Amino acid sequence: GSVSDMLSRPKPWSKLTQKGREPFIRMQLWLNGELGQGVLPVQGQQPGPVLHSVTSLQDPLQQGCVSSESTPKTSASCSPAPESPMSSSESVKSLTELVQQPCPPIETSKDGKPPEPSDQPASDSQPSTPLPLSGHSALSIQELVAMSPELDTYGITKRVKEVLTDNNLGQRLFGETILGLTQGSVSDLLARPKPWHKLSLKGREPFVRMQLWLNDPNNVEKLMDMKRMEKKAYMKRRHSSVSDSQPCEPPSVGIDYSQGASPQPQHQLKKPRVVLAPEEKEALKRAYQQKPYPSPKTIEELATQLNLKTSTVINWFHNYRSRIRRELFIEEIQAGSQGQAGASDSPSARSGRAAPSSEGDSCDGVEAAEGPGAADAEESGGPAAAAKSQGGPAEAAAAPEEREEAPRPAEKAQPPPSGTPAPDDADDEGRPRAPPPPPPPPPPPEGPADGPGPVPNPAAAPAAGEDAATSAAPPGEGPCRARDGADRSSALPSTSAPAAARRASSLQSLFGLPEAAGARDSRDNPLRKKKAANLNSIIHRLEKAASREEPIEWEF
DNA sequence: TTGCAGTCAATATC
DNA sequence: GATATTGACTGCAA
């Protein structure tokens, strides 16, 4: 169906997203005879690895292929079928070298680029194709990701930010050329990096790319060149368009008749972006606090009450949950690092200020908090837990609104009890308020301890959490921390020993990992312990309730 | 089906 | 103009 659609109604290149371009690139390659049996037209010394995913295709395309024009279609180079994913250690090694030396970058590839579909490469607005990594290294970015030892995502983003700002390089340029991501994504990534172990393979890719980029001695230079080129291209285009009225620049105007594709549809396809009013957001947050996982029924009610589409409400919950989770991650990280530094000021203080707006908010939606007192209360402590656990009813009774605003800073594990406006039926909703289990985190080597950590809700730590909480819990169960301990050194995921070891070292050098992960040890953080305890109790209650099936009051 | 991870891309802010 | 925010979408897993 997709193919049919694509063949009959192709969108103009300029209107396609990176992803959307892939099929066309594939088609072009296929037409050129370059796309063989799933083998990447990778050039370079090593046999091209099999294309594992589309994403990976981009790299070679962008660089390999692109530059391949120099060695173009010599499918010869591409053909070397993959046989085996080449010994990873080897590939890594060579990749390392590639990365570490000024690779044949982007620029080169760009200019010479043939007429490919994207011959408007240097385009400003669409930076054309992203060139993730320079050189062939890109080819096995996925392998690298898979074999990569734990990286300090926080540290990496920090460094990247520094380099970018120091050199006046924009996120857009960086994202599009190095990461293959849009500006918004880059911003988000740099501002709220998730801990390595919480990332999926795909999610790790940008970090690996960043690390590789950081390792590249010419990274800045290359980006600068790109910047220059873009500028040049832009000027050029401006000129020509002025004179020749060439329709290719108007980014916004969008239409793009270029392919004759009906402009109309495009227009109509564009749905205006929904912007929720502050009150709506408030209401949603309140509802979230009551039920982070509202039932369809609740969602519907909310939608009608707020006059929103149910899909909007659903999306909002999804986004909110996941964003809160992220906030917590960074908070964790920050807490961890700061904790180490200043003991005294730790927890409370820190979170108070460090978590400025976003955090507070994030965390449960609670936004600001008014009363300072409130805030502290929670923080300081224990209170929170205690209060929560006991206070169910009371809280409920209390003014809902305020309550929620109250404090739950970031961690909380659970949604506050009480009542807010949620759609009345707050009560039952069959769904567990406890959010489901979270993330089976990728396999952090250690497993258990790692619990999902600081998740917003208890649920977060479901299974794992459980143990974590209960058994393994001991030491602050913190999320990341736990795991860090041991494995960190080993850094290697699973894999077998020797090979793994070897790989590890090469990877180490590749990534130049200083010390891998960032957030570490905050084990002794008292606040954490408290939280862990709280979590435990929540989990227990949940379990109990679940087994008994009674609606119980879920207040904690 | 549902929830989540990742992203995009339109907007809002700085 | 660059960066931050955020609603929506896609793909995947349970």
From TrEMBL:
DNA-binding region: 269-328
Positions with biased composition (Basic and acidic residues): 518-527
Domain Homeobox: 267-327
Polar residues compositional bias, start-end: 53-74
Entry's localization field: Nucleus
Sequence ranges of Pro residues compositional bias: 433-459
Chain ranges of the CUT domain: 142-229
Residue numbers spanned by region Disordered: 42-135, 237-272, 337-529
Lineage: superkingdom: Eukaryota
Ranges of biased composition (kind: Low complexity): 42-51, 75-91, 119-128, 341-358, 368-399, 460-475, 488-510
Family: Belongs to the CUT homeobox family.
Name under which the protein is recorded: Homeobox protein cut-like
Full-protein residues shown: 880 to 1435 of 1435
